[in-house]
């Protein structure tokens, strides 16, 4: 049994961090279907996929994923994102 005065190494004090594998970009607003995509890509690993905030850099080694509804509006959003995608970043 542990007591509050026991010394605990820093590795055991915090839960293990999950590695981000997929960085999601929304091509347009948000919908319920788009909100389900991180859970589908994560495959049981809760931190494996998440939407990046506006202006947040793409972490090294992470696969970018563009998420959009299957509408003309969504397709136009995807086309706009891909057209202006930086050549120094991996392609989605």
From TrEMBL:
Keywords for this entry?
Membrane, Transmembrane, Transmembrane helix
**Transmembrane intervals:** 20-42
| Lineage top rank: taxon | Bacteria
Put simply, this protein is called Uncharacterized protein
